[in-house]
Write a structure and sequence with these properties.
alpha/beta
Length: about 160
Amino acid sequence: MGTPLQKGDTAPDFILYDTDKKPVTLEDVRGKKAVLAFFPGAFTNGCTREMCTFRDQLAEFNKLDSQVYGISVDGPAANKAFTEQNNLNFPILSDFSRDVSKKYGGVHEDFWGIKGYEAAKRSVFVLDENGTVVYSWITDNPGELPDFDELRGVLRT
């Protein structure tokens, strides 16, 4: 599965699909700071709380010259319904193959006790304008949320 990304690592390339099934690549996110927020699954309590917090604080993240991306293993259609239900105002990308989740923060295997079901570990990576990881946070507890104040502090520096 590889080692999760740490501060100082170069972010691996990716192609993920947004809710309109349009590809988004690492190259597309370069040029400004990017916040990549991996979450286990749309429509779950913790993930809804996390993505809605990003939604509610998006103006602050934008003022810090950053772009937030939510990334889940759900397909584009489920992510679109999740985005619409929660009025999310930033891209939600689909890692349906789990390849990018495995390269960045890792996956929960047999998630929810379902054999063979893999979900992204809740993790957040801040990339600088050149795609270098300047912040890495990964939790094995799917109910734990990132420290949003800490994230904004990283973006300020």
